[in-house]
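ingest -> validate -> predict -> emit
validate: passed (alphabet ok, no gaps, 257 aa)
predict: started
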Amino acid sequence: MKMHWTSVGLTLVLLAAVVGVGRADYMTGFETSDDPGYIVGNTVVGVDGWEEKLSAANDITSDTLSKTGTQCLRVGYLDTASQAGTYHPLSLDTSGGKLVRVEGYIAQDATNPSKEGLFYVGSGTSTSSSNSSMQVWFDRSYNGNPTLLYKDGGTTMSAGTYTAGEYYHIVGLLDVESDTCDLTITGPGINLSVEDLAFRRTASAVEWINIQSYTPSGMAGGYMYADDVSITVVPEPTTMCLLGFGAAGVLLRRRKK
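emit:
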């Protein structure tokens, strides 16, 4: 019986830890099975809370460059001097935790990449990248090389050379009290993990997520992709510890009987 109760105790503690991770406040794979569902070929604007940013040149593609499932979001134009984007307002309750976890997969088109493909979250009435809390983007010709970049405050940092047509996994853990972000980026040729990046805008909030393609005048336009996007408020570590202690207490009481 001793081994039995030890196993039960470990299970309860692990279960408490899993519960403490939190449920996603927003999550989409851009699939038709998502609620309310995304129709292939249609603009994402007006579906599930997405709004227009610069233009509505974004659509749902099928079997093109999906990370999971059969669909993903494509943003961009082939025209020169083009800007396209879409954003999703967020209403997050951070009263139970000061950390916000942002996750997504982004890629550049292998044949027609945008000059810049941006993935960022922030706050304020303007969804400009200058108001971002976390900003990651592709630049197909940064110092002559296709480079995946990120911001530390107002400073541009390089994560390394990316491969077009391949997804990169972005995970940001944003502390809305200290206005800092821990960031990991993984994918072909890149394995980055950095801590305490400064927000570009001090706001103690995460109010929207933005996916944007940009190509300046005189350059051929192109596309970027995004898939499996999620935003989660993470409970305070003390909350998870209390859940674990509670499970341990149940175990001890039962062993004394």
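The two ends are 12 Å apart (CA to CA).
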